[in-house]
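go over this:
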Amino acid sequence: MKKVLFSHSYFLRFDPKQWKIQQAYPPLATLYAASLLKQLGYQVELFDTMFSLSPDEIIPILEKSNPEYFIVYDDGFNYLTKMCLTNMREAAFRMIALAKEKGVKTIVSSSDSTDHPDLYLDAGADFILYGEGERTLEALLDALIHGVENFSDINGLIFRSEEKLIKTAKREVMKDLDQLPVPAWELINVEDYKKRWVNHHGYFSMNISTTRGCPFHCNWCAKPIYGNRYSVHSPDRIAKEMAYLQTNFGASHFWITDDIFGLKPGWITEFAKLTKQHTFKYKIQSRVDLLLQENTIEALAESGCETVWMGAESGSQKILDAMDKGTTVSQIHEASTLLKKKGIKPAFFLQFGYPGETQDDIEKTLEMVMTLLPDDIGISVSYPLPGTKFYEKVKNDLETKANWTDSDELAMMFRNTYPAAYYKLLQRFVHRKYRTKQGMAELESVIKKPALLSLNSLRRIVSVPVHYSGSLYYKKKMEKMLHEIPA
């Protein structure tokens, strides 16, 4: 029986913002791949880096396990891995080097290795899996075990042969995701995740995926793993898996990791029928235009959806059109209103700094947020990802810096309307102003109906003075910076 050691390169401690939040989810894509190899008869172990202090913690595992293959298989369902943060890249390089010192054949599957295969091959990786990785990994290991020396017929591979970079043909994607075994949850310490969730948030949330890929074409969005397609698990498979995780691990909440949830016609309606007897809640990501399709929001409410994160991006139609977003500001308003009516919390992903954005566009985004007052917001600045039209527009400005070190760096890596430091201040300002307005709205609600007072609402109310003073501070710094910009 061949021994395989899996790992991934996301270290929560190396991302200070995410470490503070403590909303860690297991490496789902890694667990899918590991489960497939277990099903094929491999002896599989996992070094889960999520809470590790250092990549060197793999040393005793390598010594004890003595694997024949080491696989760095990043969680392609986690949007943070698409950013290719340099802290995580360096950790991956270190683990690869440690495995190579032991003479272990090393394979990598990640967004970063797909975009920069030479860097990973230079670091010691023997093979890069690009695209959907499970079947490519299966074919590669089978070839290695049988002593095959020519790998050019294995689709989905990048490797070197006689110093030349070889990229084989693209592998056809799986159409029926139910053919995959359920993720190998038994390989992780679920209790460690659960303890952190309960201690910091009072409940336990786990992650699950119902689809792979996204057929839309926002020009800043990269899809190096699952591409511009849309494959889906059946509603029955997902309902059963959620029930299993609730029963066996005590999960009462789920993050459904799909880029776009419920795009297939009738899927959400069928899912709602299968889950309405369960007590769990879940959050999703969706598009405002899809939410407005007939009965979608009603079905989400019936099936236990608690929060919908929408890619609002901007309150300026000019910017949405420049992004090739395919949605409108009026749809953001309509979807947010309807979600609230059905008891579902709308949340906004916002993006500042897209090329051509002016102060007027920024003000429109701020006005939209303050008017609609979503339950939460996530703010980033435009981040050039290889393989996108947006990247091609700005790539000549990326000579000195093309990646963030962690998710809170928020560095503007190309020349834009305002200095890079301005966007960092803007992110802080919008958060503070939004939290101030949110806390005041909470106070008004509690005054009208004291029974609505909860621990969360109390926290929002008492934090108003801090956020208000913070908004004034950041606004003053922004105004000073704008004043100093040469005309």
In short: Residues 402 and 413 are 7 Å apart (CA to CA).
